[in-house]
Specification:
This protein has 381 residues and is α/β, with parallel strands linked by helices. The protein is built from 16 helices and 16 strands.
């Protein structure tokens, strides 16, 4: 099979690896517009459950990646200077560029060709192909140019976020909420290597406007955020990597393919970073598409239908939960101003409806007991 993949992110790279390992006769080319050492952002995160799927499906890639991951066994929610640790939530993280570099080397050893600095802007540029995989991210031109065929909807959410890093290393994935005179600032921060952490800052749009970020230069924005989080950064700087304020696009496609073209990863659907499932979903897409093609053979339309059939229930469940999580942050000014630290942590953990009080009690009896002391009615519930 002659396979052309647009986008050298986790979805495209892992799909290429699975196909090439299964049948080395496949000719697989990946086209990436950026250079080999270019990336945006800092670290990416996996939950323990996300890594469980990888271990079950591909022990070799799991063992290849694991030595490069930072791990921790709990998360924390900080309400100003009060920090609430929550047990039973294991996570691992890795630098985005480091993850991509490991995957580049993995697929190249298998014989997959990656064409860096190659900006494909229309399908005709790809030439002859049996299968075209659109793995070119949340802003996929393949999807945007064929929205009617895919049944695409894009819902731009109002909160603003900016993806920074810092040399301050944190010992768990932490959400720090800081009240200021213009509104609440939330930092999503976690260590992704021994000397670096992701430090993503999110605010409601009204807070962004009142702070005056629209007219600030990049260094002024960094200085402002460093002042807000000075107690958390301990004198360490915030570091930019072409960082800028953005809004999150909630992308969905009713149809996942047309002709010989199929969407995977963020091109297919986006999941808000607050649930830490974007990379997991991308790699699970790759596994499902590979399995569908292996099961259905050269009949692409049957393979595409099977791919959607296998993935839709899990994808829709996570996508729905992610969208509930988005809206939780869109009301964080009110939540932080009216909830105690324990209530905020509990509200956060139960925000998507996937965890109820019984599950909180099982995962972290201390948090459950502290919440019960404030709300004894929950015990009867």
């Amino acid at each position: 099979m002659n396979i052309k993949i647009v986008g050298a992110g986790p979805a495209g790279l892992y799909f290429a690896a699975l196909m090439k390992k299964h049948d080395p006769r496949h000719r697989i080319d990946i086209f990436e517009r950026n250079s080999r050492d270019a990336t945006w952002g800092f670290g990416v995160v996996f939950s323990d459950r996300a890594l469980d799927f990888l271990r079950a499906d591909d022990e070799a890639i799991y063992e290849y990646l694991m030595p490069n991951l930072e791990t921790w066994s709990q998360i924390a929610i900080a309400h100003n200077d009060t920090r609430i640790g929550v047990s039973g939530n294991g996570f691992s993280s890795i630098g985005r560029l480091e993850l991509l570099t490991l995957l580049y080397e993995y697929v190249e050893r298998l014989g997959v060709k990656i064409h860096f600095n190659t900006n494909i802007t229309n399908l005709a540029q790809l030439g002859e192909a049996d299968l075209i995989v659109a793995a070119n991210g949340a802003f996929s031109w393949i999807r945007s140019e064929n929205e009617e065929k895919f049944g695409t909807t894009v819902d731009w959410r109002p909160n603003r976020f900016i993806w920074y890093g810092t040399s301050k290393t944190f010992n768990s994935l932490t959400l720090t909420f800081r009240e200021t005179d213009v509104g609440v600032f939330c930092a999503h921060h976690y260590r992704y290597k021994p000397d670096m952490s992701t430090f993503l800052v999110e605010v409601e749009e009204g807070t962004w406007e009142r702070a005056g970020f629209e007219t600030m230069a990049p260094d002024q924005t960094i200085n402002y955020c460093e002042r807000v989080f000075r107690n958390d950064l301990d004198g360490h700087p915030i570091i930019s990597n072409n960082s800028y304020w953005r809004k999150f696009p909630a992308v969905w496609n009713e149809r996942w393919s047309f002709d010989n073209v199929v969407l995977i990863g963020d091109a297919l659907r986006t999941a808000h970073f607050s649930i830490g499932s974007g990379t997991r979903l991308a790699m699970e897409d790759a596994i499902a598409l590979f399995r569908a093609l292996r099961e259905c053979g050269p009949d692409l339309q049957r393979s595409f239908s099977r791919f959607r059939e296998m993935r839709l229930p899990a994808v829709k469940k996570i996508w729905d939960a992610a969208n509930v999580s988005i809206r939780w942050y869109e009301d964080m000014n009110r939540r932080v101003s009216t909830l105690t630290p324990v209530e905020l942590a509990y509200d956060y953990m139960t925000r998507t409806g996937r965890l109820d009080h019984a599950e909180i009690r099982r995962c972290d009896p201390r948090l459950a007991a502290a919440y019960e002391a404030l709300h004894p009615e929950v015990i009867q519930g």
